[in-house]
Amino acid sequence: MFIFERRESVPLKLKIMIPIISIVIGLIIGAIAILFLNVNPLQVYKAIIIGSFGSRYAFTETLVFATPLILLTSGLILVYRMGFWNIGAYGQYIMGAVFSSYFAIFGSPELPKFFMMFIMIFSGLLGGAFWAFIPAFLKAFWDVNEVITTLLLNYIALSILRYFMYGSWRDPTGLGFPLSKQFPLNAQLPRIIPNSRVNLGLIFGIIAAVIIWFIINKTKFGYELRIIGGNPRAARYAGINVASKIIIAMLISGALAGLAGMVQVSGVLRVLQIEISPEYGYTALITSWLSYLNPLIGIFVSILFGAFTAGGYLIQITMNVPYGIIPLIESVILFMLIGGEIFKNYKISYLKRSF
After folding, report:
1. Which of 68, 188, 254, 351 could form a disulfide with 260 if both were Cys (CB 3.0 to 4.6 A apart)?
2. 280 with 72: CB under 8 angstroms?
3. Helix crossing, 295-318 with 41-53: angle to 10°?
4. pLDDT tens, 287-302?
5. Distance, C-alpha 197 to centroid of its chain
6. How far is CA 303 from CA 38, 73, 193, 213, 259, in A?
7. What pLDDT score was predicted for residue 225?
8. What is the pTM of this model?
C-alpha cells in the first residue's frame, strides 16, 4: 500500500522540477497531437519560437499578449494565497472592458486625453471589482462555493457583452459585425514602443506585480491572507476578520482583471467586440500556479505564455496547424501542475503488506 506523509517543507528540487516536467509533458502531448496532422512537431515548435522571439515585431507581439496576463496573474495570486479559488477572472476582465468602453463610445472626443484615460482606467478597475464583489460577498457571509459562483458569472458577463454588441453599442457603419465604433484618439491608451502595439498597460502590469508582491510579503494584510490560506479556522481563532479580508482581496483581484480588460480594448483593439481574447482569464490560472504564486515570477511566466499565443497565431497562418494546439498544451501543463501538488506536499512511500 502507498502511504502519504505530509512534508514539513518542500525541497527546492521539487519546486524546480515540477514546473519543468509539467511543461515538457505538455509539449510532448502537443507533439503527439501535431503528428496526427501529419506535420513535424519540431518544425511547429521552431515556428512558435520564431513567431514569438524571432524578430523585433514578434517580440513586441509577445509583450502585447503577455500584458493582460501579467495583470490577471497578479490579481489571482493575491486571492489564491488565501485559498479563495477565483475562477472568474474572465468575467471580471470582460466587465472591466465594458465599463471602460462606455466612455470611449459615448464620451466626448474633445475631452482632454489625460482625463479620458483617468476615467477609463478607473471605470475598468471598478467594473472588475464590482464583478468580483458578488462572489466574495456570497462566500464571506453565506459560505457559498466560490468556484461555482465565479465560473457562472463568467457566462453572465459574456451575455452582457453580447447584449451590448448586438444592441445599442454596435457600430451602425460596421456592416452588421458585433463591434463598437473605433475609439477616439483621446480614448486610446498610449503605446510605449514605436511601430508596435505595446502600450502603457505593460507598465501597469509590472507595477501591479511589484505591489502585490509587497502586499503579500511585507504587510500585515498579506500576512493575514497567508494565515487564512493555511488554516481559516486558526485565522478566526487568532482574531482575523476573515470575511473582510476575502472581500478586500477579491476587490483588488477583480480590479486588476478589469484593468486588464480596459488595457486590451483601449491599448490593443481600440474597439469593443465580443472576441476580446477570452482565453486570457483561464490562461492566467496556469500562469499563477506555474509561478508558484509569486507575482514577480509571474511576469516572466506570463511572457512565456504570451510567446505561446504569439507563436500559435503564426503556425495557424503559415503551417495550417490549428491554434487549438496551444490551449491543449496549456491545459496539459495545468493538469500536471495540479497533479504535481501531491508530490510537492506529500512524501509517498510504498509499504509491502505481510500476510
Report:
1. 68
2. yes
3. 120
4. 998 898 999 999 999 9
5. 19
6. 29, 11, 16, 18, 18
7. 96
8. 0.93
Three-state DSSP class for 352?
coil
CB-based burial of residue 101 (10 Å sphere; 0-12 exposed, 13-18 middle, 19+ buried)? buried
Residue 84, C-alpha cell as written in the block: 479563495
* Distant-in-sequence contacts of 224-227, Cβ < 8 A, 24+ apart: 225/78, 225/81, 225/82, 225/249, 226/81, 226/82
Kindly give the parts of the chain with pLDDT less than 50: none
* Per-position b or e across 272-305, b if 16+ CB within 10 A of its CB: bbeebbebbbbbbbbbbbbbbbbbebbbebbbbb
Task: State the burial class of residue 55 (Cβ atoms within 10 Å of its Cβ: 0-12, 13-18, 19+).
Answer: exposed
Residue 5, SS3? strand
Residue 108 covered by a domain: yes
What is the reported pLDDT for 6? 76
How many domains, the chain?
A: 1
Per-position DSSP letters for 269-325, written without gaps between them:
I-S-BS-S-THHHHHHHHHHHHTTT-HHHHHHHHHHHHHHHHHHHHHHHHS---TTH
Largest CA distance in the chain: 86
Q: Is residue 335 one of the residues assigned to a domain?
A: no
In a domain, 140, yes or no: yes
Cβ atoms of 302 and 74 within 8 Å: the answer is no
Residues 6+ apart with CB under 8 A from 85: 79, 146, 147, 150
pLDDT tens digit sequence for 146-176: 999 999 999 999 999 999 999 999 998 877 7
Establish if 7 belongs to a structural domain: no
Q: Give the residue numbers spanning the domain of 206.
A: 67-290
DSSP 227-253: HHHH-HHHHHHTT--HHHHHHHHHHHH
